[in-house]
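Example 3.2
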Amino acid sequence: MCKTEYAVCGSPHLLEGSLSAFLPSLNLAPRLSIPNPWIRSYSFDGKEEWEVNPLYCNTVREIYPYSNSNRLLNIVDMAIFDFLIGRGGRRSGGGKEEAPLICASPPRFGRHSHDEISILAPLSQCCMIKRTTLLRLQLLAEPEYRLSDVMRESLLQDPLAPVLTEPHLLALDRRLQLILEAVGKCIDTFGEATVVANDTQSPAADRAKLDT
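Structure, written as tokens:
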């Protein structure tokens, strides 16, 4: 039943949505629910600290579990992914260091015509990124491995194809360039050795997969 206080109602009674998998109870699968430090305020009364303090990441680095650089690097990865799809407002990212559990509702691609730069705050404020992530992004910016082309080809195999409109696919390429520009500014300011963190995965595997 639709009420006036609901932000969205069906037309007339049906509403398109997404299917979510419910997690087991905490007794069966113990896990942590850790708030995203860059959560949005959703209020007209004020803003979150990260929205007004460009040095906010210095505070986050002192807070457990983000005092662990791996956790913070995972948050940066999440922000990059969210920016690519235009999805802001992710509220949590719990789970173990090696397997973060990223939670959000609802998942979606945002407007293709708008790039919400604030989603990249973890990257631009912390100025850190995994080397493998950077190499993959650089690879997907190459003409022969362009992200929109890779995504378009992948989605052709989906029973619901076409899943994304052409403007959404082209928005991926545009946003990818903005991410690389943000990383470039960080490197110019702090140096590559400080910004780009070595991780244990093998980036060569990504190129091998694309070559096949």
